[in-house]
Design a protein that fits this description.
The protein has helices at residues 40-44, 112-121; strands spanning 25-37, 59-71, 84-96, 99-109, 125-127, 129-132, 150-157, 160-173, 185-190, 201-214, 217-226, 241-262. It is mainly β. It has a single domain, classed as Beta Barrel (Acetoacetate decarboxylase-like), CATH 2.40.400. Strand 4, helix 2 and strand 5 (125-127) form a beta-alpha-beta unit. The protein is globular, with a radius of gyration of 19 Å.
Amino acid sequence: MAELQGFLFPRTATGKASVLPPPPWHYSGDMLTIEYRTDPDRVIELLPTPLEPAEDPGAVALVWADWQSCSDGGEELLDPVRAQYKEAFVVVRARYHGEHVSRCVHIWVDTDFSMVRGHYQGYPKKLGDIHLTRPVAYGRAGPRLAPGGRFGATVSAGGRRLAEARFTITGTAEQAGFVNAHAMFHTRYLPAMEAEGPPALHELVANKTIDGEGGPIYVGDAELQLFTSPTEELDRLAPREIIGATYRQVGATFAGGTTVERYHPGG
């Protein structure tokens, strides 16, 4: 009997059909980040033990990203249906034994490989429709990366719009925001097959990225609206005030991570 191959399912005799190749995974893309403050209790309720609230606990970052990604060989770049995707995600801050960490609490993506990759990393990814205005260097069908450039962004899921934003560049800055600026601490969770059994997988993990780089940090004015849905909870993080907004072109490599805590059965 042949040994099944493949980094993730479906595992086959050759491994060719696996939804993902093994890491490292390389990312390049554009990110629009809007930081704002919400009700701190709505952030704290999303922090599992042993994470504790950070100072300014109501700070949130809502990020839209238009990505191109590939494995080490780069074959996906010549078959871009395997490389390109968009996502929108919500990041909050916390403390782990006194150290600041970031945590993604909601995220929507528009491809299966990105969703499965996120589940491996501990991101709570769901499918959605994400759109983000792209900058242009020529013509009139897009904004320039310069003061006055105007961008729009939306995310929808289950046939309902969840968020929409507008952003206008006013200048540049030396530093980006502070919410999505720390090691990402996520939860990997899988229920047991037995109805009353403890989780088959329940652990807190830290994602590791290397070779991070980025272009100019464009700052500006932002507007943000969140909407209700019967199957989503994004509106529980409704904005009370905008902290700031940035647009930046970035790149990084996911190079694995660390299991920080393995919870006891039933924990």
